[in-house]
Amino acid sequence: MKIFIANSAYSDLDGIKEYYENEDALTVGTQFLTSIIEHIQTLADHPDIGRVVPEFDDVKIRELIHVPFRIVYLREKNSIHIIRVWRSERLLSLP
Fold first, then answer.
1. Residue 39 has pLDDT above 90, yes or no
2. What are the pLDDT digits (tens) for 60-88?
3. CB neighbours (10 Å) of residue 16?
4. Which residue has the higher pLDDT, 90 or 5?
5. Phi, psi of 42, rounded to the nearest 5 degrees
6. Of 46, 57, 53, nearest in space to 80 by CA
7. Other Cβ atoms within 10 Å of 2 Cβ, number
8. What is the residue extent of each domain of the chain?
9. What CATH number is given for 2-87 in this structure?
10. Whole-angstrom Cα distance, residue 76 to residue 80?
11. Which of 86, 75, 72 is nearest to 11 (CA)?
12. Binning pLDDT at 50, 70 and 90, where does residue 57 land?
């Protein structure tokens, strides 16, 4: 299954990278981002592995938990669209 990453998710990932850069922990940030991307790649073979996002109660809007983040994605018939990579303690908003 094809995976697409929305601009909003790219922006979220850039924000994560920037946070670790500002904390002088670039290596940790790079490793963390790599693990998030690897987690996202599992969706190609297992698109329904994530749970339905409770705030939206729509079977097409799902999430993977990658502590402390929620990887929110839209599950379509032949594709996955990563929408947000959002800190779990924040109120979720979609673009």
1. yes
2. 999 999 999 999 999 999 999 999 998 87
3. 17
4. 5
5. -65, -20
6. 46
7. 9
8. 2-87
9. 3.30.2310.20
10. 6
11. 86
12. confident
